Amino acid sequence: MNIKPMAKLRYSPYSRLLTMFLAGAWAAISSAEQPKARVVSVIHAGATRDAANPRAFFRPQDNVVHSMVATGIRRWTGQQDLKTAWRSLVSPGETIGIKVTSAPGSVIGTRLAVVRAVVRQLLAAGIRGRDIILWDRRLDNLHTSGFVRLARELGVSAEGAMEAGFDRLIKHEAALHVPLTRGDLDFGKKRYSRFSHTTRLISRRLDKIIQISPLLHQPAVGVQGNLYGLSMEACDNVLRFKLGRRFQKSAVPDMFNMTTRRGLILEKGFQEVMDKVIQQGGEGIQKLLPPNIDTTYAFFYRPESPLKPIPPLQAWRFALRDALEEGNQIEATVEILHPNGEDASSQTFHPDGQVEYYSTVSKAVIHVTDALLCQYLAGEVRLQYSSVMNELRFSNDAVALDALSMDDLERLSRGARVRVPPVNRELLQNAAGMGLGVDARERIQVERVKLSAAARNRE
């Protein structure tokens, strides 16, 4: 090949223009291929001010917040009818867990008014009160922050992740040893453990999670937020990560993924239920399937049929046979392929008869950033380091919401000339690398909706 023309191009006056054009084209192509996140932001100037008592500072108004939540959910789902909008996220008969942040208290933690609005709308959408659980790490924090009282008022329940216990099968492993504390799964049995386990509340009971997190500074990771708030509050043996902060950037995304996508099928008796389903000609098979999976998916059990999908009941029978074979002590995995041929889930059959699943679809159907108030310096209530924002944000992308929250915390603390530790965004980058969401601000599309008193009255 004659390289002289290429050499001439290199030194020609047009080479720089051509190089810039090609670089721009490549950047545009790369950007188009990268995933984007969508966030709906609802703002109402009167969300925290009582019109009858304008001197009262920061009092969330139930009627205004209700309107903000309704607007956000309708806008997020694209449904004009509020009941239909909620039904596109959750369904009657499912157990819905509303994750709150209660330890900081009701002023700088999740606000009662936001949770009250969400629960009332779920009840109006046909979700039974007995199927709604307000939860956080500890029940005593739910008590002191008023969530237990709120649950009684609304006819729902409130539970602590620690009090529900932790699941030995669903665990994150890290060789970081700090003495176990009371409430950890193996406390009293051993001094150290390299495992952090998911609460049984999620792994065995909840079908869907709605997370409502405050816009609150967290020294170790920047923002209390969604990633940290769900992963660290839903698992045991987390003191080691709070003391060894450099491990959080990898542990938090992994535990978030584990918590929202892994669980157990049934409490017990998979074999018995499967035999009954076979006798009834397949009726009730949904009980044995992972969340968001149906029989249109392709089921593979490679040791029996390496390339050809087989009916789910047949795949389960083979896997159970191998897992329960005396002296075998192996795990048997059934792979589940989406009809699109790309997204894969799985069911793992353990020698003790329990069946674990991994789903590509997260249990967390919507995250809400409670930005009615932003406290940009962590600790107890410090209203001198706070800013009223009167805003709620909605998305299924926890990473994008946390990225926006970090932007706010940096901006507000800088504007107030308050020195806070520099934000380390490596945790968000790791989460994005795992496919949990989008961390790059230029790829986060924010749809802003400003409500007025007139709009609220039409609600």
Explain what this protein looks like in three dimensions.
- The protein is an alpha/beta fold and 459 residues long.
- The chain folds into two domains: 324 residues; 85 residues, no CATH class.
- The protein contains 17 helices and 16 strands.
- The strands form three sheets. Strands 1, 2, 3, 4, 7, 8, 14, 15 and 16 form a nine-stranded mixed β-sheet that branches.
- β2, α5 and β3 form a beta-alpha-beta unit.
Please summarize what this structure is.
With about 450 residues, the protein is of the alpha/beta class. Helices cover about 35% and strands about 20% of the residues. It folds into two domains: about 325 residues; about 80 residues, no CATH class.
Strand-helix topology:
Elements: H1 4-11, H2 15-33, E1 37-44, H3 62-77, H4 82-87, E2 96-99, H5 112-124, E3 132-136, H6 139-144, H7 147-154, E4 157-160, H8 161-164, E5 166-173, E6 195-199, H9 200-205, E7 208-218, E8 222-223, H10 227-234, H11 239-243, H12 248-261, E9 262-264, H13 270-279, E10 298-300, H14 312-324, E11 332-337, E12 344-349, E13 355-358, E14 364-375, E15 386-395, H15 398-415, H16 426-433, E16 444-451, H17 453-458
Parallel strand pairs: 1-16, 2-3, 2-7, 3-4, 7-14
Antiparallel strand pairs: 1-15, 5-6, 7-8, 9-13, 10-11, 11-12, 12-13, 14-15
Helix pairs in contact: 3-5, 10-12, 12-16
